[in-house]
Design brief:
about 70% helix; three-stranded antiparallel sheet; mainly alpha
Length: about 110
């Protein structure tokens, strides 16, 4: 049974360092044929978890960007600042695009 000690590159089996072929065979036992996905799967997180976390953080970041654009638009509307209003609206649009892209990443299935 393989156990990880310091990350993807240090896999040990009964105190003996595994070679790339034994890592691949470890992944084959787990039903994974791609050696890169095997290394990711044997590590702390699998690729689906990483994509889910990325989508969550990108959605939160896009939401914050969108809210800050709304604040900037409101401030500049009060001051009758045309270029500032335009920048705020584009920031709202950018936040919406970031959220949409994050949700597309969330729908990726491996």
């Amino acid at each position: 049974m393989a156990r990880t000690t310091l990350g993807f590159d240090r896999l040990y089996d009964n105190g003996v360092r595994n070679t790339a072929s034994s890592i691949t065979s470890c992944g084959a036992r787990a039903g994974i044929n791609n050696p890169l996905l095997t290394l990711i799967k044997v590590g702390m997180m699998d690729l689906n978890t990483i994509l889910t976390l990325f989508a969550k953080f990108a959605t939160i970041g896009g939401g914050l960007w969108l809210v800050w654009g709304a604040i900037q638009t409101g401030i500049n509307l009060r001051d009758h600042n045309g270029p500032g209003i335009q920048g705020g609206i584009w920031q709202i649009v950018g936040g919406g695009l970031i959220i949409a892209a994050a949700q597309l990443f969330a729908n990726i299935a491996l």
